[in-house]
Amino acid sequence: MTNVRNFSIIAHIDHGKSTLADRLIQHCGLVSDREFRDQLLDNLDIERERGITIKSQTARLPFTAADGVQYALNLIDTPGHVDFSYEVSRALKSCEGVLLLVDAAQGVQAQTVANMFLAMEHNLEIIPVINKIDLPSADIEMCLEQIDKELGLFPEDTLMVSAKTGQGIPELLQAVVERIPPAKGSPDVPLQALIFDAFYDSFRGAVASVRVFNGSVKAGDTAKMMSTGAVHRIEEVGIYNVNRTPAKQLVAGDVGYIIAGVKTVADTRIGDTITVDDNPAAEPLEEFRESKPVVFSSLYPVSTDDYVELADALERYKLNDAALVYTKDTSAALGQGFRAGFLGLLHLEIVQERLEREYNQSLILTAPSVEYHFFLEDGSMVVVDNPAHYPDPVIIRRGEEPYIRASIMIPDRYMGAVMKLCLDRRGVNSELGYPAPGRLEMRFDMPLGEVIFDFYDRLKSVTQGYGSFDYEMLDYRPADLVKLDILVNGEVVDALSMIVFRDNARARAVQACERLREEIPRQMFKVPIQGAIGGKIIARETIQPFRKDVTAKCYGGDISRKRKLLEKQKEGKRKMKIVGDVEIPQKAFIAVLKTKDD
Amino acid sequence: MPESSGLYVHIPFCRTKCPYCSFDSTPDGEALIDDYIEAVCDEIAARPKGFAGFDTVYFGGGTPGMLTDDQMMRLVDAIRGELAVEPDAEWTVEVNPGDIGAEKARFLVKKAGFNRVSIGVQSFEQNELEFLGRRHDVQDALDAVEDFRMVGVPFGLDLIQGLPGQSVEARMRSLQKAVAQKPAHISVYELTIDEGSEFFKMGDKLPRATQDAVADGFVATSRYLRSRGFIHYEVSNYSAGDLSNASRHNRRYWESRPWLGVGASAHSFDGASRWWNVRGAAAYIQAAQAGNTTVAGRETLTPEQKRLERVALGFRWMGGVAREDLLADGLDGLLQRLAREKLIIVREDRVHSTPEGFLVADGLARVLSGSMPV
């Protein structure tokens, strides 16, 4: 155990965490250079494209230190986004130390600070590392200053690397050995293994990534999940050499995986403690906490025929993402679908993209919503996350909506723009902090409902990409809430309804109507598009009929083509979303959710 | 009496390729023409059974006027020798101003026997002819008209309109000049940028006329020509006086009546199946000389496909569509609404497009066939 080090890399988004992880793996010879792919650890398409880590992976790096001793360095990769802070925190709990990565050009950012505090909460050794020192725009002086002033760490402890070129990598590995404490734990007491990640293998079922804190575990043991008491026979334990490699056993201090014939990752819950049934630990390593969805949206197949396929895809997807919750939902416009809860907007986008890419689903998502509380005349309270369940307004006494505490880090030149954005989004209770010269931290209490509607995109836009954003849930506060309906050709498109703050309703309605006018193709007839609260129209646009759609020539050779067009349309008709006799393209549903400046 | 047939002969040769053209035609192909004509004669001789009583013959292209007198006679003789062409058959040939002189005009009518000529004048505005990449000028067009008038044959004028930036006034000037020639027929094609044309390759570099400008121009064209005694009988076609000057041959296409097409990329229809020949003069000659079939593809129509064709074609011309072919949900309401918008005229058992309806004929077919929502 004295030769085991467990550590994570934490960083602000895009500061090079994945590149560094890949470089470490390559340097330790886990993969040949030929096999080396960029960003080895981020193996989801969407992660690779967006440069963020969502599902973490783990690797055990063999490293021969300067003293000639062989060490096992367990690199525990962490998700890199605010929606997944719970997963980050489980990963960190499994470590004794972290590499805190700072981009040499960008310096300390909001998530650098947030992640450092997380690491400090877990009493981890923190090694500051300045990455991308090869960049022409690298400002190492600035970074050292920030590490001193903003993070309170010692500049002289800071390592300089370029994950891209490999510069400084051997020194970094040596520092991991020297400065991060050896893995703790006793092998001779009952097993306590923390699940810090889980994923689904279509052949083996759920695979739990664990840190063994005490005791040992081997194939043939009977595992007991301490949160539920469920028991499973362990089929295999092993370590991660990038790929899974079976091992005889895992002992206290080790990081590895356990396969126990569990069918879904929902039953291998991140944060749960595994012990063995015949010699159980007295208590779990920590109290298990279920992650709670805060953003809700409905998912519909573009073609109503594909509902069963979507149901199947969701079921399979869910095997790998315990945080997603969903139930059945129906819409007059979109047919049968599902109401789903997400950890945040990014989680929503990830689920959507993965369902589309990996499971070949064509989806329509409805406007994201939060959970509203409505107190009714009869004294009861209903929780509503779906506009379809908005109570009859005459029986609503008052409504409440969830608030967050938003923390925004920006260069101070954007203060005016961000202040305006946050006030527009009903931010209150503002506080300003100056963590370093030229840098500004703005804190606001804001309705979560304002944030899930394109806030992050707007923030990025008004700060030219420099703004970063984090939040924590606060409480519920009173709000005057109404249900906004959108009508196409006189019929309500239920999938476009949303619960909104009354004062925002008109602006949202106007925007939705404009977007739909742009996205719905001109038809044979004039098509009115309206926004309404109750029966009252508050916004209106009109799609003018098309004037010309005929081709000039149709002679012998053109006839088959003309007919095939009609045949294709007939075939496509089944798959269209038709409301009030108007075909609404999928992209119209999506466009309604975006603002103009995107 | 068995159904009569039409014959279409494709001449895929041009002196130059016009930038808007995506048809099968080969510039600089003159050396191929003799072989091509032999191949077409072979195809006529080996035609499938089931075509009898040809009452229309149509030479299109390309540029049929490019053929020498001998070449043309070789084809005409083969047609008259092999096929039962009715004595009063309509014989149409497409010609281009600039390729044609008084001699050629006399030959085509008096010797070859064409009794209907379609002259590709395209425009009577010099700058428009240049934009369209035509080799002739306005005077050539007027001369060609004069040549055929002297021979005493009814002629039609083909125009292209809806050019980017074209004013309604420029449109009208061309139309007035066209009408002044006293043609039996006028075709007005709104410019389309077809895949495969030079214009298409220009992409965004080519300005496009807006939908509204083209629609306004189309309506103005139709109103003007109707005021001058023409019948707007198809989207792009006007006949002087009455329908007797309409193209009998082209009506075959819109009425789903049989025709045999010969030559490269020509399509045929025998009432049950459609088939089409290989594209390109060289490929066509090669197949014919090797003794292979020149047919590149074939389809036999189901009753539903025939219905969709009747709907797709019927709204494009005066013939209209039988009500029983219209299967849209809520048909009566739709018909009422479209009639109110003056896009259609509803008769007891048929529905006809108005001239304004021609502009949205594809939409009418979509909406009323039952293949699309409104």
Short note summarizing the structure:
Chain A has 598 residues and is of the alpha+beta class. Chain A is built from 14 helices and 33 strands.
Please describe what this structure looks like.
- The complex is a heterodimer of chains A (598) and B (374).
- Helix content of chain A is 24%, strand content 34%.
- Chain A contains 14 helices and 33 strands.
- An eight-stranded antiparallel sheet of chain A has the order 11-10-16-7-8-15-12-13. In chain A, strands 2-3-1-4-5-6 form a six-stranded mixed sheet, with helices on both faces. In chain A, strands 21, 22, 23, 24, 25 and 26 form a six-stranded antiparallel sheet that branches.
- Chain A starts with a strand and ends in a 7-residue tail after the last helix.
- Chain B is of the alpha/beta class.
- Chain B has two domains: 5-253, TIM Barrel, CATH 3.20.20; 303-368, Arc Repressor Mutant, subunit A (Orthogonal Bundle).
- Chain B contains 14 helices and 17 strands.
- In chain B, strands 9-10-8-7-6-5-4-1-11 form a nine-stranded mixed sheet, sandwiched between helices.
- Classes of the chains: A alpha+beta (598), B alpha/beta (374).
- Chains A and B meet through helix 13 and strand 33 of A and helix 8, helix 9, strand 12, helix 11 and helix 14 of B.
